[in-house]
Amino acid sequence: MEQPYRFGRVVRFKDFEANIRTGELRKRGRRVRVSEQPFQILTMLLERPGDLVTREELQKRLWPADTFVELDLSLNAAVKKLRQALGDDAENPRYIETLPRRGYRFIAPVDGGTADPLSLIRAGLDTEMVRRGLPSRRPSSPGEAVPAQQGNPEAVPLVPLQPSPGGVREPPLRSRWDLRLAALLAMGLVGLSVAWFATHRLPPRPEPKPRRLTANPAGNPATHAHISPDGKYLAYADQRGIHLQLIDKGETRTIPQPQGAGHGVTDWWPVGWFPHWTKLLAQATSLGAEHSSFWVISVLGGAPRRIHEGGFAWSVSPDGLLIAFSSSRFHSDIWLMGPNGEEPRKIVTANEGESINGVVWSPDSRRIIYERFRVEPAGPRRDIETRDLEGGQPSVVLSNPKLATAFGGGFWWLPDGRMLLADYLWNIPDSLGERAPSLCLGDTNLWEIKVDARSGKPAGKPRRITHWTDFSLESPNASADGKRLVFGRVSAQRDVYVGELEKGGTHLKAPPRRLTLDERNDWPTAWTPDSKAVLFHSDRSGNRDIYRQALDQESAEPLVATPQEDLLPRLSADGTWIIYQSFAKQEDIGTSAPSQLRRVPVSGGPSQLVLTLHGWADYRCARAPATLCLLGEQTEDQKQLVFTAFDPVKGRGREVARIATNPGSAYNWDLSPDGSQIAEAVPGENRVRLLPVRSGQPRDLVVNGWSDFNAGPDWAPDGKGFYVSSWSPKGATLLHVDLKGNVNALWEQKGSWQTWGVPSPDGHHLAILGFTVDSNVWMTENF
Fold it and tell me: Residue 283 phi/psi, 5° resolution?
């Protein structure tokens, strides 16, 4: 094998620069987000360009022997993230070549920077070894390489030392002095090490090692996991119902849905255990949560017993005397009642535009802890508060706009006074007191913070206790003694699917096929004017860029690829421009930070500014011969949605209409092909409102038998209907709804949370968002 390549502080290859010491990657001077493990892989590959780096070598460097991970899957995921950051393709690599079942090879030319390895060797100790507090060895003869430290994956290899000109050797006296110098330096390092350990705290506890408890396939997520107080049983739900598992033996039985609920039951899940493991609280809801009820299940057998009608149950107090719940699915308050539904009383009311989530208890049952969520001009805000049941002002434990949401999050109060928090972090210093590694959006980890039991206030700074990647950690909860913790491990993948429509666009001729075959996230939003290719944005380059993929091709080509976040490509009315929104960085999405609406020719070319925005907005255009394009922006107080005309070349125009909105809610809408009306989905309901652009009264279309329209509407090309996504506990269903409210289901994706459909201009095909969710329950101990 060739000798390792010794690089300096900055290594250059093509348009990239990698700073080995700071862990930073830049492309043409702009920083590229890449997390710690992918950067370690890049470092190892750059050490030996052109040479095979085996999977075993990478696994040994990234994960010490006592670290729990699924090695093959985790390594594959880390390499995939590195390729995303580099914009590389596994099938047509420019940087990283895969050698099947063996490892990887860096194939691009490398410039190792300006550091002088020879001077480092002659100094007696390698600079990196000194920084890490490790000894280094000088070569004993010309041509011998200074080796990496055995057993230390972070040691930096050096090039062979070549003889000096003329073959002159150093005298023996000089060698003896070098040996004495090395000995003195080694003694000094030992002394420094002893002093450091004497004055610093002990190293952190070993990272928790979880084990898997459920094995549900993608499309049938295991959710609502709760461990019994004695730590012996697990209750969880999936599409088949509620299941009870004896943890140590793996034996499982199913709890059937309750009979005589008085309403159809479409969702049935466990809420929490009573202190004696023989009883479990559960919730049943109808489609769209129009009706709901709380039930007590006896683990010893017998039919579930109903104790309350209406609302959303959160948790049972550790002493079993109280149940916390909200009065509606909108989570606008917190109520308490007895274990049989007696004496309900309200103790917390949300402010306007707020919701309250994740209510759990202190170990002594005297306080509750919950999250307040609201959307501010600067973006979403989440505060974790505790409140004494006897009254008084709440205490804030954490206040952070970056606290986890979407596919992860949750918290739990342990008997030793720690609160565990599941949180994802951006690569910025945050209120949790550490600089987190760059993680993909949705990656979550466990943090701990001490909380005073009496005041409910934080009694220390948060500390991170896991470094997991590639999934979201959801709803952690522990046994009564705090020795066992269960949580949901959730991952999701978004892909572009394409289906062929029957005449009229109300049915698909066959199940849709997957168009984008990579493992990145892809969001379809438009077509090219000739209906031959789908336009979508994707995170395959590390940030969001705009791509085009033809129906007869297996790979996509970039249309807009910049260091910014470029998303939501849509066609202008005349089909000559692709209009998209651009944010400076990912953290700005969903906030009031400035953004731009830009245009690029459909045939390709330079991007140009259309207008400037404050935060997020949606925009739609009619189709020729109509010329209208509309921009939808919420007011700062989020109480109105304002529609303004714009021209892709001339920019912003006149205000066309405005509608009342609820703060904190997302409003999806589309402009009809002839530009005469706006279709707007009422958030969380089964209604679509039709708003005339010029004159006339709005009217509502109620779609019976379906609920929770969470994406769409997208108008059909003939203007006779539109496509919307309906969510239910079974999954997401793509619907075609005509202007009389008649509905046809085109496609269902089980276990999914969202889909949508964008028709081609000729009405022959539908580009569909496929959203695959994988969720299982895991447990860890000694955390």
Answer: -125, 140
What pLDDT score does 127 carry? 33
Q: Could you tell me if residue 459 is left (phi over 0), alpha (psi between -120 and 50 degrees) or otherwise beta?
A: alpha
| Cβ neighbour number for residue 73 with a 10 Å cutoff | 10
Q: Which amino acid is at 704?
A: N
Q: How far apart (Å, rounded) are the C-alpha atoms in residues 450 and 430?
A: 18
Q: Name, in order, each residue with C-beta under 8 angstroms of 368's C-beta and a sequence gap of 6 or more.
A: 324, 334, 347, 359, 360, 361, 362, 386, 387, 389
Distance, CA of 236 to CA of 223 (rounded, Å): 6
Q: Give the pLDDT score at 164.
A: 35
Instruction: Give the full edge-to-edge strand order of the sheet including 24-27.
Output: 10-13, 16-19, 24-27, 30-32
User: Is the Cβ–Cβ distance between 145 and 160 less than 8 Å?
Assistant: yes
Which of these ranges, 400-414, 418-432, 572-586, 603-617, has the smallest mean pLDDT? 418-432
d(CA 202, CA 185): 25
Question: What amino acid occupies position 421?
Answer: L
CB-count burial class (<10 Å; 0-12, 13-18, 19+) for 715: buried
Instruction: Write the CA distances from 412 to 26, 207, 409, 416, 692, integer angstroms.
Output: 39, 18, 11, 12, 49
| 50, amino acid identity | G
- Tokens for 333? 């308050």
pTM here is 0.73
Antiparallel, parallel or unpaired: β 410-413 and 395-399:
unpaired
How far apart, in whole angstroms, are the C-alpha atoms of residue 624 and residue 675?
Answer: 10
How many residues in the chain? 783
Q: How far apart are alpha carbons 546 and 530 in whole angstroms?
A: 18
Which distant-in-sequence residues (6+ apart) come within 8 Å of 29 by Cβ? none
Residue 571 has a CB neighbour count (10 Å cut-off) of: 23
SS3 assignment, position 703:
coil
What pLDDT is recorded for position 162?
38
In the sheet that holds 557-560, the strands lie side by side as 522-527, 533-538, 545-550, 557-560
Question: What is the 8-class DSSP label of residue 451?
Answer: B
Three-state SS sequence of 540-597: CCCCCEEEEEECCCCCCEEEECCCCEEEEEEECCCCCEEEEEEECCHHHCCCCCEEEE
- The neighbour count for residue 547, using CB atoms within 10 Å, is 26
Q: How many CB atoms lie within 10 A of CB 354?
A: 18
Would you say 580 and 600 are in contact if contact means Cβ atoms under 8 Å apart? Answer: yes
